[in-house]
Amino acid sequence: MPTMNVSLTPEMAEFVEKELATGDYATASELVRDALRVLRRDRDLESERIELLRQAVDHALDQAEQGQLSRRGVLEIAEDVLRESKA
């Protein structure tokens, strides 16, 4: 397995030490590998969300080109979205 040296801020080093003290990780390397897996997963999920958003925008643009427009205004739609998110 390749080895890398990484410089950490004092705060990050303290965080690593605290995580190691919990016993969830045997070594700092194990913790960093897990953190990188989480970062990769988060980036992959974000890419998927962006792609879904692009598809939704493309679909909406196609509908608009076909004259399938909503009579509702942007503010009305935004208010509904906010109201639904609070429910």
Describe the structure.
The protein is 74% helix and 0% strand. With 87 residues, it is an all-alpha fold. The protein starts with 9 loop residues before the first helix and ends with a helix. It has helices spanning 10-22, 28-65, 74-86. The protein has one domain. It is built from three helices and no strands. The longest helix is centred in the middle third of the chain and has 38 residues, at 28-65. It holds the Pfam family ParD_antitoxin. Belongs to the ParD antitoxin family. One of its GO terms (biological process) is regulation of DNA-templated transcription. Keywords: Toxin-antitoxin system.
Task: Report a brief summary of the structure.
74% of the residues lie in helices and 0% in strands.
Give structural attributes.
87 residues, ParD, mainly alpha, 74% helix, toxin-antitoxin system, Ribbon_hlx_hlx, 0% strand
Instruction: Kindly estimate the percentage of residues that lie in beta strands according to DSSP.
Output: under 5%
Q: Unreliable runs, pLDDT <50, ≥5 residues?
A: none
Counted up, domains total 1
Report helical residue fraction. over 70%
Mean pLDDT: 91
- Give the structural class: mainly alpha
Radius of gyration: 23 Å
Distinct helical segment count: 3
Straight-line distance between termini? 49 Å
Q: Give a quick account of the main beta sheet: strands, pairing sense, barrel closure.
A: none
Shape: elongated
> Number of DSSP strands?
0
Order of H and E elements: HHH
